[in-house]
């Protein structure tokens, strides 16, 4: 099952509560389903949990049965329809949609309480929502074919403290989030706290994995720098030896040359600790740079 499917299954595990919330959720379903017109309601879903919830939801919200309903136990898409004129008229009346108006609207009079607003969002997500697997990215969206509904949903979300973004895709108007924190908060609010926790865990694992990768890359880069520096220092020491200049160096420079040749794999800090007496990393670095400078002078034309 996809992550979006898991979210919808969790949302559907919540009991149908107050009638006002059932009506708000059902209205969210109607405005975000495949078709809601004066001639037909058509809801198509691949979620068995949503398919099982729908009949009871519409029965409690409106006291109506679907004329056609999909079997939750049948794989694939389940189709629910209402085409009886008296049932459609009741849906329009109870949801306060004006059949003579040019477009659908959200009935804010039905959403005065916060719990009803969240129920509406739950219905909208169940019918027209999706969310990306957090292992791949962060994206939650709600898609409707009704422009004014999409704009009014943005207003509703802003009033609840969310800051959604908008776009269009073919004939759909999309309200979406890409901030993981907003997605976590919204999923928790509409009834999917377990899924929200899964998203948080995935984000924590991703941050940890990225941190480990950065440290590994940094350490690998440091190793490369150490190896390159050691090779340059050993070449300089060999040049000085070939020139017979090593014996003319000061005791400190000779010690630095001997330690680098004896321990080509050690870092500056490790070499500095082997000096007699031990010196700082900066002091040893200065001595090795001096050897490189002297070798360059010896080989200059």
From TrEMBL:
Keywords, alphabetical: Cell cycle, Cell division, DNA-binding
An MF annotation (GO) of this entry: DNA binding
Pfam family, one: HTH_WhiA
InterPro entries assigned: Homing_endonucl, Intein_endonuc_central, Sporulation_regulator_WhiA, Sporulation_regulator_WhiA_C, WhiA_LAGLIDADG_dom
UniProt domain DOD-type homing endonuclease: residue ranges: 119-162
This protein's record includes keyword Disulfide bond: no
BP GO terms, sorted: cell division; regulation of sporulation
Superkingdom, natural source: Bacteria
Keyword Nucleotidyltransferase: no
Family: Belongs to the WhiA family.
PANTHER family (alphabetical): CELL DIVISION PROTEIN WHIA-RELATED (PTHR37307)
Purpose of the protein: Involved in cell division and chromosome segregation.
Full protein name: Probable cell division protein WhiA
Source organism of the structure: Evtepia gabavorous
């Amino acid at each position: 099952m996809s992550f979006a499917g898991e979210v919808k299954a969790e949302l559907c595990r919540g009991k149908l509560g107050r009638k006002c919330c059932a009506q708000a959720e059902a209205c969210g379903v109607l405005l975000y389903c495949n078709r809601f017109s004066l001639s037909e309601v058509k809801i198509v879903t691949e979620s068995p949990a949503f398919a099982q919830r729908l009949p009871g939801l519409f029965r409690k919200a409106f006291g109506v049965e679907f004329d056609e309903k999909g079997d939750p136990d049948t794989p694939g898409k389940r189709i629910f329809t209402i085409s009886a004129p008296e049932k459609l008229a009741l849906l329009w009346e109870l949801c306060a949609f004006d059949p003579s108006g040019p477009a659908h609207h959200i009935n804010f009079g039905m959403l005065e309480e916060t719990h009803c607003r969240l129920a509406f969002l739950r219905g909208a997500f169940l019918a027209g929502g999706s969310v990306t697997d957090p292992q791949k990215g962060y994206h939650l969206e709600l898609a409707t074919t009704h422009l004014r509904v999409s704009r009014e949903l943005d207003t509703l979300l802003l009033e609840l403290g969310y800051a959604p973004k908008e776009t269009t895709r073919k004939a759909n108007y999309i309200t979406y989030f890409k901030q993981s924190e907003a997605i976590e908060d919204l999923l928790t609010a509409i009834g999917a706290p377990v899924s929200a926790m899964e998203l948080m865990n995935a984000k924590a694992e991703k941050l940890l994995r990225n941190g480990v990768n950065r440290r590994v890359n940094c350490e690998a880069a440091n190793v490369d720098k150490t190896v390159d520096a050691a090779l340059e220092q050993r070449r300089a020491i060999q040049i000085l030896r070939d020139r017979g200049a090593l014996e003319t160096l000061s005791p400190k420079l000779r010690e630095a040359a001997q330690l680098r040749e004896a321990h080509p794999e050690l870092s500056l800090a490790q070499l500095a600790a082997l000096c007699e007496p031990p010196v700082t990393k900066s002091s040893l670095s200065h001595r090795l740079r001096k050897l490189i400078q002297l070798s360059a002078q010896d080989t200059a034309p």
